[in-house]
From TrEMBL:
Molecular functions (GO terms): electron transfer activity; heme binding; iron ion binding
Record keyword Ribonucleoprotein present: no
Function of the molecule: Functions as an electron carrier between membrane-bound cytochrome b6-f and photosystem I in oxygenic photosynthesis.
Protein name, UniProt field: Cytochrome c6
Span of the signal peptide: 1-25
Keyword match Transferase: no
Residues the entry annotates as binding heme c: 40, 43-44, 84
InterPro entries: Cyt_c-like_dom (IPR009056), Cyt_c-like_dom_sf (IPR036909), Cyt_C6 (IPR023655), Cyt_C_IC (IPR008168)
Organism listed in the record: Dulcicalothrix desertica PCC 7102
Keywords from the named record: Electron transport, Heme, Iron, Metal-binding, Photosynthesis, Signal, Thylakoid, Transport
Main localization of the protein described in the UniProt heading: other
Pfam family, one: Cytochrome_CBB3
């Protein structure tokens, strides 16, 4: 009986690890700041948005539009949306994750 339970638990553990998505590592905000300056600041200097003034990168706006997470920002930067161009072909996934970390860290600081 113990052997059956052990084998069953091992099977569940293997199944869980085999089909689970790996967690995204937190990006490097310092590196993200450099990438942001080179690619994003022309429209988003100081956390603003020159194209759509309501959709800034301020914490309250990110929360309002369900963008206050690395995952949401990574998706937006990678795929683009509306006037926002897609950067998935220009930047590597690690660079985009770094930008997301930078945006969140700046939003938490009030872009100061």
């Amino acid at each position: 009986m113990k052997r059956i339970v052990s084998v069953l638990l091992l099977g569940v553990a293997l199944f869980t690890f085999a089909f689970s998505r790996p967690a995204l590592a937190d990006g490097d905000a310092v590196a993200g700041g450099k990438i942001f300056s080179a690619n994003c600041a022309s429209c988003h200097a100081g956390g603003k948005n020159l194209v759509n003034a309501q959709k800034t990168l301020q914490k309250d706006a990110l929360e309002k539009y369900n963008m206050y997470s690395e995952e949401a920002i990574i998706t937006q930067v990678t795929k683009g949306k509306n006037a926002m161009p897609a950067f998935g072909g220009r930047l590597k996934p690690e660079q985009i994750a770094n930008v997301a970390s930078y945006v969140l860290s700046q939003a938490d600081k009030g872009w100061k």
